[in-house]
Amino acid sequence: MDIELGIQNVARPVTFSVDDAESGAITEAIGKAVESGAPINVTDDKGRHIVVPASALGYAIVGSETKHAVGFGAL
After folding, report:
1. Predicted local confidence at residue 68, as pLDDT
2. How many distinct structural domains can be found in the chain?
3. To which H or E segment does residue 28 belong?
């Protein structure tokens, strides 16, 4: 599942992927961080740690992976 975090005053969003089973935990971690003002601290599916100050968070998109069509066939 793809996660996108928009950060205030930064042109490019932070995007990363997590396992589908972890998406609920990520959503919960973002919600708790925004409520308490603590940093958002998550780990992606490659083992990288992402830390974002909750006060700098502009938006969060938690969604499924988008598959794009390839080829010249009719839509």
Report:
1. 58
2. 1
3. helix 23-36
Residues with Cβ within 8 Å of residue 52, at least 6 apart in sequence: 5, 7, 14, 39, 40
- In terms of phi and psi (left: phi > 0; alpha: psi -120 to 50; beta: otherwise), the region of 58 is alpha
The domain in which residue 13 lies consists of: 2-63
Position 2: which residue type? D
Please calculate the CA angle 52-3-72 and round it to the nearest 5 degrees: 145
Q: Please report, in tens digits, the pLDDT of each residue of the chain (75 residues total).
A: 889 999 999 999 999 988 877 778 888 888 999 999 999 998 888 999 999 999 999 999 988 655 656 666 665
pLDDT at 62: 87
Please give the Cα distance from 63 to 73 (Å, whole number).
Answer: 27
Q: Is 24 among the domain residues?
A: yes
**Residue type at position 20:** D
Residue 52 near residue 5, CB atoms below 8 Å: yes
